[in-house]
Amino acid sequence: MNISIVIPLFNEEQSLPELCRWIDNVMLKHSYTYELLLIDDGSKDSSWNIIKQISQKNKNISAIKFRRNYGKSAALNVGFSKAKGDVVITMDADLQDSPDEIPELYNKIINKDYDLVSGWKKKRYDPLTKTLPTKLFNWAARKASGIFLHDFNCGLKAYKNTVIKSIEVHGEMHRYIPVLAKWSGFTNITEQVVEHQARKYGVTKFGLERFFNGFLDLLTITFVSRFGKKPMHFFGVLGTFMFMLGFILFSYIGGQKLYFIFNDLPARNIVENSGFYIALSSMIIGVQLFLAGFIAEMISRNSYDRNNYQIETEI
Question: Once rounded to an integer, what is the mean pLDDT over residues 63-87?
């Protein structure tokens, strides 16, 4: 099978018939063998009934319905587990992603051997309150991940099948699938300028809170990707630094006190010196960080996937 198209959706009853017809026309035009996986993320409208009607007419369509709304990451993860095509395409169900982009995405994966091709909506039809935070978010993601993409959150992406079978998408990590792919050893990543269409039906399902959640997820995935297998390298180094800083300050205060005593000079009580409490707090924090790293290291070493390594080929 050439292509698997995975589409998570939530309350998209108006756009589904048009989207499925559009995709089918593109697939027939280019003679692709394909499957269309629709993941209904607990829609409250008639989306599921429409999906059942469409799937009866088009045998390339299969669908999964969640009992409740779990989020886009969960929908993508389930869709990835079912996908069988050589190339896996993801796109949104709101008609803002154009199926006409699929052939070029497919070509870059098959003929140019990219692992992942991410869409870049260079010209957007979104309000300024959405585009400005998006630019800031993408800048931070580029700096933290080392992957130069203009639009991490674009739903229109193409993957080799081996990529989506090697990663697990959970929480709100759908924004960082390129980072997850790079972490798994798939570094041949590029982007393609795609058309962004104005929303035709319904309203957006995401609010401003997604940007705050996105930055928190960025911190999480950056830490996990760098120190997930070696937490002591982070907590241990930071703990040692804090402890030594406090110890040096405490030694200075204590040494100063002894110098005054041995030279019969008036000296303040150590506990009256604010530096004493700073030094003590620093040493306590250092020990706590070191212990946190030690505990995290024990948990990591006993994790079920501690020796789960991505093997590319074997002779």
Answer: 94
